[in-house]
Amino acid sequence: MGHTILILGACGQIGTELTLVLRERYGSDSVVASDIREGSDALMASGPFEMVDATNYSALEDVVMHYEIEEVYLMAAMLSATAEKFPMRAWNLNMNSLFNVLNLAREKKIGKVFWPSSIAVFGTTTPRENTPQNTIQEPSTVYGISKQAGERWCEYYCHKFGVDVRSLRFPGLISWKTLPGGGTTDYAVDIYRKALSQGSYTCFLSANTRLPMMFMDDAIRATIELMNSDAEAISVRSSYNLAAMSFSPAQIASSIQRHLPDFSIRYQPDFRQEIADSWPMSIDDSRSRADWGWKPEFDLDRTTEEMLRSLKN
Q1: Which residue out of 67, 143, 157, 201 is catalytically annotated?
Q2: How far apart are CA 197 and CA 216, in angstroms?
Q3: Are 236 and 133 in contact (CB under 8 A)?
Q4: Residue 2: predicted pLDDT
Q5: Which of 31, 55, 161, 200 has the maximum number of C-beta atoms within 10 A of its C-beta?
Q6: Rounded to the nearest 5°, which phi and psi values hold at 126?
Q7: Is 212 within 8 Å of 283 (Cβ atoms)?
Q8: Domains and CATH numbers, the chain
Q9: Residue 201: per-residue pLDDT
Q10: What are the residue ranges in the chain where pLDDT is below 70?
């Protein structure tokens, strides 16, 4: 069958766009989308879809064997803000789905795995500017704890069992195609929607909370470039730092005001402020640049132009 891919969590923020890009690249029948619920019309119409709970090993194994899957992209997860409300559910989903996929790879039922980590693996004791690839990781959120544990298991399965697992520590991701999914950085998606629909936005983070961010097209491209790299080139088997830009709500607001001069923003920090304060402000991703040639294409102004233009249409 050539190159057969399974995407778990295909209806989520990253999963939706990843599925469509991979189908364009490899042909729609080569990419099987799956989730615990149906996705957008565009996703559902674009190729094969299976209803699968990623925490159910035998259901997962059935789909893998049926379609002769070679690569799995595990995008199913409970995100930071939601996970704080449902700690055990988040832990069980985030960890059990990972173990299921790693064990399928260990048993040679699949050949290659992509699993996303996050800047949430870092904590208040981590250097916050230019956060290094290898540094203190003392995450204080349920999401961060699950991502940190996941990174250790990925590296362990690679070294102990030869599993070809690859990972990126995603910053906040900005996209116009899907609605925000319960993350702390999701204000950077919502702000563009509200700017167009209401002309104002009330932000749940304070004005100068600077966080690493990335436009979704860059994140998808990074994922595919990493997966297409030679295994020998990949020196990091926990998860790679990945960066594009860093900005605060005040900076994104002024970027929007250049296009919509009447746009106004108010600040009402909530529990997500504490999460954001525990994360890095900027990321050193020199290992990604050196090992597999990573280079972002979108800065804040280009992101703002793209978001406003696409949401208007």
Answers
A1: 143
A2: 22
A3: yes
A4: 59
A5: 31
A6: -75, 140
A7: yes
A8: 5-171+216-241 (3.40.50.720), 172-213+245-282+298-312 (3.90.25.10)
A9: 98
A10: 1-2
Q: Which of 20, 12, 9 is nearest to 51 (CA)?
A: 9
**Is there a catalytic annotation at residue 240?**
no
For 54-85, the pLDDT digits (tens) are: 999 999 999 999 999 999 999 999 988 899 99
Q: What is the DSSP string of the chain?
A: --S-EEEETTTSHHHHHHHHHHHHHH-GGGEEEEESS---HHHHHTS-EEE--TT-HHHHHHHHHHHT--EEEE-----HHHHHHSHHHHHHHHHHHHHHHHHHHHTTS-SEEE--EEGGG--TTS--SSB-SS------SHHHHHHHHHHHHHHHHHHHH--EEE-EEE-EEE-SSS---S-GGGHHHHHHHHHHHTSEEEESS-TT--EEEEEHHHHHHHHHHHHTS-GGG---SS-EE--SEEE-HHHHHHHHHTT-TT-EEEE---HHHHHHHTS-SSB--HHHHHHH-------HHHHHHHHHHHHH-
Q: Which residues contact 278 (CB under 8 A, 6 or more apart)?
A: 122, 123, 124, 139, 140, 141, 144
Q: Is the dihedral of CA 92, 98, 101, 103 positive or negative?
A: negative
What pLDDT is recorded for position 1? Answer: 44
CA–CA dist 278, 297 (Å, integer): 27
